[in-house]
Structures are given as structure tokens and as C-alpha cells.
Amino acid sequence: MGLIFFLNVKTVRYLYYKRFLFQINAVLFIYQGILEKTFNIMFSSGALCYAELGTSFRKSGGHYTYLLETLGPLPAFLQLWIEFIFIRPAVATYVSLAFGQYVVEPLFMPCVAPTALVKVVSMLGVTFVAAVNCWSVSMAARTQVLLTFIKMFALILIIIPGIMALVNGKTENFRNAFDSDSLSLTKLPLSFYSGLYAYGGWFYLNFITEEVINPNRTIPLAIVFSMVTVTVFYVLINVAYYTIMTANELLMSDAVAVTFASRALQGVAPAIPVLVALSCLGALNGGFFSSPRMLFVGAREGHLPAIFSMIHIRRQTPLPAVLCLYPLVIIMMVRGEIFQLINFASFSRWLFIALATLGMIIHRYRFPDHPRPFKVPLAVVVIFTIVCFFIVGLSLYSDPWNTGGSCALTLSGVPVYYLTVKKSYIPKRWKKAFNYLSLHLQIFLEVAQQEVQTY
């Protein structure tokens, strides 16, 4: 990436632009860092791969559906298993904890906010989002649109003063920006997990393919547009943060936007944590809107109890799947810590994303005539898959406790699959009791199987 300036101007104007060019070079220096480039490449390549998968397979369910269609039922079940019992609750937990942190932190500055209060506020946020997604699909969608606009407004409000300070010559934080005494290859995948989490989200649309109008056109356009928008905004907001704050100050802050606002936006500083908290609430709502569709599809395929494949008879929401996710998030929140949860959950998430794109390569070879309205160059898919497997493998060495535990938790689904799905060894008495409970839950929740096939 580069900038070409045609400076056929008078000498006075040249001296003015010379200062401005130095500031632009500082921005480009940050943007052209190794990790930043890698995040963008990974982000873009993965998004394009999922655009092809979303237009090739018209079922909802995201990773689960693609693994089922390309690699078979066992990998698909393992993905559903770890998503069901850990990944989705972990993701929702650390987003809700961020929401609680931004709500509570301003009330106690400069002191540290009480952890118990942060978790109580986080639970209230999760409860609100779960209630909205149980009540109405259209209400959840409208809430998501509103919170997305609030997020964009908050980002712009932070970006503008940061860029203005940069233009005015505040570039000292960019000097020797990559000097470090603690560079280590073993820390690379863990930094990738945090970075890729920030740039992720491009696969959520694939969870609701059956509810998308004209997915062959909508999915690629939505992914490409969102990919460009997120990249531009996140690069600019990081430049704004580093203009006002040093790297150590960023690491020490529990709520970066609050610290930034107290320095650069003193007039509207109280509004920033509220806006960021609402942004977190939007991310949480998006997860509750999309992820239960994976449980819904898994139950429809027979990999989960049938109750999770049912929808409310009037509200048309996947009520049992949403209600199942809610208590898992609350339980995990009691002892959750954000960065441990990111590392723990990211291992399995990126393992199955790599398997999904590997399955796409295999499916291309086995079924070359399968309709693919949007097709990605094979080299892009291969490189993305190799990099994903490399990061996942190296993270086992970097953080064996968290990533090893995530790996063990994933493999624990193998006996569950063979005992409950492949061949049912469940005692008849247990089956009878479970069917009795499911029937009464169906009546109590007012849910039934979908009548119209949507795929």
C-alpha cells in the first residue's frame, strides 16, 4: 500500500505539505506493521472463502453445515459440540464483560471498578439481549441495526480528534513503535487470536443463510462491504488511540475508550463509555441472533435433541436454542476472565474454520460441477487454510494449558457422538423420561417444528 503525491506547487506550500507527509507516513508505518498486514490478509481471505461457502450451500448453520456437507457428520458434530458447550458461551461472556466494564468503570474512576458489580451489569445486558431474541426476530434485527449505527457514531467520534491531533503534529507515540524486548514467535498465535477476534465476524451472516433474501448476491456483497468498512474504521481508530496514548497506557487501561475520552474528548467524555457499551451490546445481540441458528440446524439434522429445532408458533423465534445459550453464558461469566476466554475459545473456533475451508478444497475436487455462484481463487483458500492450521498448532505450544484444554474439550465429543448419535446406547428408560420432558417443554414454550422448508 502506498500514496503517490503530485506536488507541483509553490515552495511555501511544499514546506507545509512536508510536515503533513511526515504525519501520513507515521500512519502508514503503523498500518504496514507485520501483524496488521497479517490480520487484514487473514480477515479478507477468510471472508472471501465464506462468501463462496455461503453461496454454494444454501442451509443456515455456518461452520457446522459446511463441515457436514464436505467432511461428514463427525467433524460437524464436534464443531457443534464445542460451539454448544463452550465457544458461543465464551464469546458471549467476554463481550458482555466488556459491556459491564464500560458501564461501571466511569462511575469509579480513577479507582478500579468492583468485579462483582461488573459481572452483575454484564448479566443484565445478557438478559436483555436474550429477551429481545426470544420475543421477536424483527425486533432483534431492528435492535441490531440501531446499535450498529450507534457503534459507527462512537467510532467516528473517537477517530476525528485522534486524526486531528496527528495532523497537528502529535507523532511522538509512533517513533520506534515496533521496538520491543519481548518479541517471540511463541507469542504470535495468541496475539493473532486477539487481533483476529477484533477483525472477525464475517462468518456470522452464514449462520442465517436461509433467512437472507437472494443469498447468492447478498452474501458476497455484504461480506465484501463489511470487510472494507471494518478494516478502514479499525485501522483509523487504532491510529487515533496511539496518537493520544502510549502503548503502555493502552495495556494498563481496563477501558481504553474511557481513558481516551478523558484526554481528547473532555466535553463529551461521559458519553463515550455509554456509546462503547451500546456497541458491545450490539455485538452481543448479533451473537444471540445468529448462533442459535446453528443449534437449530444441528437439531434438525439429528445431532441435538429435537426440541432445539423448534420455533415459537407465533413469534417464529428459535426459542429453545436461545434459552439454552443463556444459562451457559451466565455460568461461564461467574468465573470468566476476558483474555483467558479469548485464547481458550479461539483455538477451537479457528481449528474448525480451517477444517471448513479444507473441506471446501476437498469438495471442489470431488464435485467440480457443483454450482458455485461466487468462486475464490484456489491459492487464496490454500494459503488461508495453511495459515489457520499453523496458528492453531503453534498456539498449543505457546499456551498449552488453555489451548490444550480446548483441544481436550473438543475431543470429548467423540465418545458422545458414537454413544448418542452414531449408535444410540442410551437406556430406554432414559429415552422415555427425556421424551416426556421434551413434550412438556414443547407445550410450555409453545414451540413446534418448522412447517415450511427454507433450504
From TrEMBL:
Pfam families: AA_permease_2
Membrane topology: Multi-pass membrane protein
Sample GO molecular function, one term: L-amino acid transmembrane transporter activity
Database matches in InterPro entries: AA/rel_permease1, AminoAcid_Transporter
Protein origin, superkingdom: Eukaryota
UniProt KW keywords: Membrane, Transmembrane, Transmembrane helix
Subcellular location field: Membrane
Any Gene Ontology CC annotation: membrane
Transmembrane segments: 20-43, 107-133, 145-168, 188-207, 219-244, 264-284, 317-335, 341-362, 374-397, 403-421
Main subcellular location of this protein, as a coarse class: membrane
Record bears the keyword NADP: no
PANTHER family reported in the protein's UniProt record: AMINO ACID TRANSPORTER (PTHR11785), CYSTINE_GLUTAMATE TRANSPORTER (PTHR11785:SF246)
Name of the protein this chain belongs to: Cystine/glutamate transporter-like
Organism: Sinocyclocheilus anshuiensis
